[in-house]
Amino acid sequence: MVFRNTIIGTTWKQKIDAIDTSNLSVSYTLFDGDASSDIMDTATHHIKCISSANGGSVYKHTCFIKCKGDAKITDDFINLSKESMTDTFKALESYVIDHPEIY
């Protein structure tokens, strides 16, 4: 997996931990990365889409970071990670809106 302009670096291995199509959820783990490999051992993401009352949906994205040794995650790291996840969501949202026939 290759990332562009993110705090977590440019390359990471990714493992799909679980896909639950009936509950619209997926879990995956990033590991063996480059730039943040001195701080972060793994980042496990849990994503779930929930139907909302107005006919739309709610997107929930939780990330659990396992640090290496005594390393600590800074507020800047957290904020840039959130920004990266938001940018990824917006790109996916735009693609789905532009290609409704796929889903």
TrEMBL record:
The lineage of its organism: Eukaryota, Viridiplantae, Streptophyta, Embryophyta, Tracheophyta. GO terms for molecular function: abscisic acid binding; protein phosphatase inhibitor activity; signaling receptor activity. Coiled coil: none annotated. InterPro entries: Bet_v_I/MLP, Bet_v_I_allergen, Plant_def-hormone_signal, START-like_dom_sf. It comes from Helianthus annuus (Common sunflower). This is Bet v I/Major latex protein. Residues 11-97 form the Bet v I/Major latex protein domain. Belongs to the BetVI family. GO terms for biological process: abscisic acid-activated signaling pathway; defense response.
